UniProtKB/TrEMBL annotation:
Name of the protein in its database record: Uncharacterized protein
Biased composition (Basic and acidic residues): 230-239
Species this chain originates from: Rhodovibrio sodomensis
Stretches for region Disordered: 225-251
């Protein structure tokens, strides 16, 4: 497959070979409004409310979409960003965390509960409690971190929505201080590396998924049919003006 426009982490997998008639063009597609995506059945869940405990001081450090960033611990301040990536018909959800710990800034992206808990432990933090937070529909609110991080294969109406718009990749990031409705989906770009999506799919797996989706799911423009006139057709088959007639006899 040929990649046109920008550079992303999975480009290195092109070293395994190319299929020239498969083309994926990046950074040329218009954003998709969140309401249009939701009408098609594509939702992004809010991060469940998490209450963290500073293991050193014993104080709580709340973080989640229901809170504005605030500091209840003397040494720790946290803020979160909900990340969603729809890649080749599957929705993945992650968390971007920014932490100021003892005056040092840390930032990281997580695509699993295990990775999130391990990183917090390295900073001396533990998740004490997970709340569903603000009440809402199951499509937009996760009751647990496990359900939040679980990948979801999109239903057919949502997949049809993507196919109609030639969408293989789209992402959305919602800082906790913003309302979800104000953020559109970015489409067919080269920014998966920026959200550490290589933690979900390595370069080779990502390239394979993308090639199969572009080549087997998204519509492809067929090559125009070449028109050949009768004279050219006869010549290509070795016929001439006497092929079906007796040549004139010399008297």
């Amino acid at each position: 497959m040929r990649l046109i426009g920008g550079h992303d982490y999975y480009d290195s997998a092109l070293a395994l070979g190319r299929v020239p008639d498969l083309v994926f063009v990046r950074n040329k597609s218009a954003d998709i409004e969140s309401k249009d995506a939701e009408d098609a059945g594509i939702y992004q869940k809010a991060i469940p409310g998490m209450q963290l405990r500073d293991l050193r001081s014993g104080r709580t450090v709340p973080v989640g979409p229901a809170y504005r960033p605030r500091q209840q611990s003397t040494r720790v301040a946290l803020s979160a960003t909900a990340i969603a990536a729809v890649v080749c018909g599957v929705r993945y959800q992650g968390v971007g965390l920014a932490a100021d710990v003892d005056g040092t800034h840390h930032a990281e992206f997580f695509w699993s509960e295990e990775a999130l808990r391990a990183w917090l432990a390295e900073l001396g933090l533990a998740i004490d409690r997970v709340n569903r937070g603000l009440l809402g529909r199951s499509e937009t609110h996760a009751a647990t971190l496990e359900t939040y991080f679980a990948p979801l294969t999109l239903p057919q109406p949502a997949l049809d929505f993507l196919i109609a718009r030639d969408v293989a990749i789209m992402t959305r990031a919602i800082p906790q201080r913003f309302g979800a409705g104000a953020v559109a989906w970015s489409v067919n770009h080269d920014q998966l590396k920026a959200i550490a999506f290589y933690k979900v799919l390595d370069p080779f797996s990502m390239m394979q998924e993308l090639s199969q989706f572009v080549g087997g799911v998204l519509p492809r423009a067929s090559a125009p049919t070449a028109e050949i006139d009768d004279q050219t057709r006869k010549e290509k088959h070795g016929f001439d003006q006497y092929s079906f007639r007796r040549p004139p006899q010399r008297g």
